[in-house]
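Proteins fold reproducibly. Next comes a concrete instance:

***
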Amino acid sequence: MTPCTRLSAPQIRAAKEGSPEAVTGLLGALEGLIRARAARIDSTLAEDLAQVGREAAWLSLRRFAGTDPAQFLAFVDRTITGAMRDARKEWQRQGVSRAAASDYEKAVQIAEGDVYAAERVATTEAMGARKMSADMAFAARCSYQGAVCAPERLSQLPCPSGPAAPESPSAGRARLLLASLGAQQRRVLELTYGIGDFGRMSDSAIATELGISTERVRVVRARAHARLREKAGRSFLYR
C-alpha cells in the first residue's frame, strides 16, 4: 500500500488544522517514504536524515494549499528530499563554502568514491574552472568526511614507540579527547589521521584492518566526530 492510498482529504485537512491524531496518522503514513529517501541520500546518516524528513513533513503542512492526497504526497516528497539533502550538505561542509562542498562532491565522483584521491583530483585540470588550491582541497576533504577534529591537531600526538618529546597544549588536549572515546572510535580516528605507528589509511584499508565494513568505518568515525564536538567545541577544533 502506497502512502497516497493511506492518506485522505479529511485527514490532510484535519492535520492542517492541528489535530494531533491526524498529524500522527499522516506522519505514520509517510514514514516508509521518509526512510526510503533518507537511505537513498546517505545510508550512513539515514537515521538522522529521517528525523530531518519527519520535521520537514510536519512543517510542510503549513505551506501546502489544498487537501488532495496525490498532490500532497508529491509536495511532501519534494520537501523532505530537499530538506534532507540540505542537511547532509550542511553537516558535511563544516568550514567550507557550499560551493566548495559541491565542487568536492564532483571530485569524489571523478575519483569513483575515493575521498583521498578526490583531494588530489580537486587540484587538477579535471575540475576545469572549479580547480582548487591544495589547502582548499584539504579543507573540503575534511569537511566532506565530517572531520570536526582537524587532522593537524590530532597528528601532533607522538607515536607510542617514538622518542619522548615536549607535548604542546593542543596535543595534550587532543590526547585527552581521544582517550574519552570508545576503543573502536579511537582506533578509527587514529588510522584515519595517521596517529601512532600507522600512516593515514583509506576507509577500505581501515575496514580490512579492523575487520568491519567500510560503511561501519564511516558510521564509527561520524559518531567519534560528534563525541569530540560535544567535548571540545569549535574554539579548539578550528582555531
Notes: DSSP finds 14 helices and no strands in the chain.
